[in-house]
Amino acid sequence: MELFKINKPETVRAMIVHLIVLTFLLVLSCSPLRIYSDLPEVKAWEPEIEKLTAPGQTEQYSDDAVIFAGSSSIRLWKTLAEDMKPYNVIQRGYGGAKLSDYAVYAQEIFSPLPGRALVLFIANDITGSESDKSPEEVTKLFMNVVKTFRKNHPGAPVFWIQITPTTSRWKAWPKIKEANELIRLTCEKGKNLYFIRTEQAFLNEKGMPRDEYFVEDKLHLNQDGYRIWTEIIKKELDKVLINK
Questions:
Q1: Which of 61, 72, 137, 185 has the fewest CB atoms within 10 Å around its CB?
Q2: What global pTM score does this model have?
Q3: Is residue 4 over pLDDT 50?
Q4: What are 209's strand-pairing partners?
């Protein structure tokens, strides 16, 4: 006895189309960006992103500018333009930024901007809290930002500044260090991806953070800390961008 039988080709085709649509919607619903974009902590940054992408923020930049983007250490770098000379720079940092934010808002942040390269420093995805991301998740989000950036800047070099060891987040350092290492390996394998090592400059002979390079919170760089960054970062930019 036949309990189920399909005779009409049209019915079969309709079922196939239906399955394809369902599969597509399932993949879309499982998209990591969809997961992050619905988080209240990500949605909360919308006003800040609107400020960063306002028309007056995107009008007068050179096509050969280097975009510095990331969290508060980028935002608070008051001497960035002077320190990076002769490179022209575009500064796009906001306090508390995470890679999960940048992955969601990268298109809005980067698409209006000219630029020959991107320098990223985002250090708030692993802080020692219960909501920390895994090193693997951090690495995937980094690559998602790179992919989005290159939609409008195809083939442009992307530099990742190693997450800095700090006393404030020292308990999370093993996990942060693992994330750094995964991103370093990813950069080694990727095209035009560069990992800027800074760890040794910020550790003393006992392997502990050098607090003299940080302000009172022992998290954000002071003037001397930014001087160290400047020396290291410019040297790495020069290796890639000079005569390019």
A1: 185
A2: 0.82
A3: no
A4: 203
